[in-house]
Amino acid sequence: MGISIWQIVLVLVIILILFGAGKIPRVMGDIAKGIKSFKAGMKEGEEAEEIDDNSSSQESKKKPRNKSTTAKK
Questions:
Q1: pTM score > 0.85 for this model?
Q2: Residue 71, domain member (yes or no)
Q3: What is the DSSP string of the chain?
Q4: Cα–Cα nearest to 27, from 15, 41, 9
Q5: What pLDDT, on a 0 to 100 scale, did the predictor assign at position 33?
Q6: Which residue stretches of the chain have pLDDT < 70?
Q7: Left, alpha or beta for 36 (phi > 0: left; psi -120 to 50: alpha)?
Q8: Rounded distance, CA 6 to CA 4, Å?
Q9: Residue 38 falls inside a structural domain
Q10: What is the C-alpha separation between 36 and 59, in angstroms, rounded?
Q11: Residues near 71 by Cβ (< 8 Å), separated by ≥ 6?
């Protein structure tokens, strides 16, 4: 049991009746803008993570580590 072509056509006809022919391009444009902004946000998030990773690794290289250990009594 899968989705047949007639079921898809029926759904498309119902959408056309509900939204009208004029609103569908506008709705699709809004969906496309939303997808583009989501992708841009994901890309910015990945770039920010890379910058954070690079800066934290550079900071760890800059900080001298104290290799001497002292025992407290």
A1: no
A2: no
A3: ----HHHHHHHHHHHHHHHHHHHHHHHHHHHHHHHHHHHHHHHHHHHHHHHHHHHHHHHHHHSPP--------
A4: 15
A5: 95
A6: 1, 55-73
A7: alpha
A8: 5
A9: yes
A10: 34
A11: none
Residue 3's SS3 state is coil
Cα 18 versus chain centre, distance? 30
Note the pLDDT of residue 57: 63
Residue type, 1: M
Number of domains in the chain: 1
* Tokens representing residue 5 in the block: 């072509």
CA–CA separation, 63 vs 47, rounded Å?
24
Distance in angstroms (rounded) separating the CA atoms of residues 37 and 32 = 9
The parent domain of residue 33 ranges over 23-49
